[in-house]
């Protein structure tokens, strides 16, 4: 435990020496959504490879830069690219940045991702507010509890902040942007789901399915950080026709198309919180 805390402290101290000011909100940008970071003004860009104890982003559509600057007039810390369990990292490595954010004084975390649609009313390009999640991945809090961050058995009944969801719904209405709202199912990947698996997670209440986000959210809530999450639906998992093949390239294209709309929404949410 002490060794891990030393690593968190080392990384936090390094970043505190590189970033300007004390951002209260952090953003984790998912596959194909990195262009939101280009809207950050007065940006300090720190490649992950320069950050002690940070992993490297090996997934397609994940640039691998930490960016600090102004979005919506507010100072933010954005991860342009995340770490995934399927890359072969441990859950501690996947969620390492979230605990460093806590040590830097981050109070709010906005997470975005590219996800498959399970709910058959969802179309490619839809944006879904995450109102809850179903965790099908190893829990990142397994092991001795790190008391400096939170309690042994953290409550998860309000994982996704209802006030932030309300703000986002108001913003979307103002901009006449239709939003879905639903449950995100987190699987390890990297294989996409079989038709039976999409159907199975639909039967248990899943609306969208991905391979990230849930570990970061659990660690953020453990540390008392407020969370907002949004998925861009990049493929329709409920097409059980044999001719539909998800080779991932459409995922990035669909996410890229949605990134500009997500930028408008996240910019205004940051300004409000
Ligand atoms: O969840 P993000 O990082 O957006 O990426 C999603 O898209 C990729 C699969 O197409 C996987 O990495 C999945 O997790
Ligand atoms: N697990 C999973 N992750 C995704 N990310 C983008 N699309 C998908 C999908 O269909 N399944």
Automatic annotation (TrEMBL):
Start and end residues of each Nucleoside phosphorylase domain: 25-270
Binding residues annotated for phosphate, in chain numbering: 31, 62, 82-84, 114, 212
Entry's EC annotation: 2.4.2.1
Record's keyword terms, sorted: Glycosyltransferase, Phosphoprotein, Transferase
Protein residues bound to a purine D-ribonucleoside: 193, 235
SUPFAM superfamilies on file: Purine and uridine phosphorylases (SSF53167)
Organism superkingdom: Bacteria
Single GO BP term: nucleoside metabolic process
Molecular function per GO: purine-nucleoside phosphorylase activity
Subunit structure: Homotrimer.
Function according to Swiss-Prot or TrEMBL: The purine nucleoside phosphorylases catalyze the phosphorolytic breakdown of the N-glycosidic bond in the beta-(deoxy)ribonucleoside molecules, with the formation of the corresponding free purine bases and pentose-1-phosphate.
Protein known as: Purine nucleoside phosphorylase
Species annotation: Parabacteroides chinchillae
